[in-house]
Amino acid sequence: MEISERILLSAEELFFRYGVKSVTMDEIARELGISKKTIYQHFPDKDELVFQVVEKRMVKNRTDMVCSVGAGKNTVERVVLMNEVMRQMLSVVNPGILFEIKKYYPRAWQVFQKHMQEHVLIDTVADLRQGIADGLFRSEINVDVMARLRLKEIEFGFDNQWFPPNEYSLAQVQYEFMDHFLRGILTDEGLSVYLKHYPA
DNA sequence: TACCGG
DNA sequence: GCCGGT
To answer: Which residues bind DNA (predicted)?
Structure first.
């Protein structure tokens, strides 16, 4: 594997587990058994490294999404599946990481924002439309408004001012949001499908 | 690895 | 004093 790719993978794993600021360039180098100089031959500074880690993760998330679209039989299953994948990820992610990136790494934050607005929003709208077509979501909902609500909900779950990590589990908060959101838009038929995944 | 500067 | 950068 390319050395630059290995650097990105190690950096991502460390950032996700411990946060971005608390992981030093020395630690990334030590993890890989290489020198800091090697890292700086591939990345001009830490800002660029963080930027590329986020960009790579966004691209991978997108391909994972496309795969998971085929995995579920219907829209409810897909939303639940996607949430399961997310919960799995969140259980090992340092909760402060999103706001840390927002505060200290504006370039990486912009890539994240752009990805959310250009890809995730469109995918979510498409999912809601499909759910309505399948008779699982209520047709009265405004799919564009509800898609935006869902994305901001997920982002809100990361807000450690409102949900201090020692008081709330990130995965639990995200589950509560998903459950509440789905119950608000499900038809009776959709609800019964949903309850097969999460019996009340 | 040691070092400088923020 | 720590850490990014040389």
So the answer is: 24-43
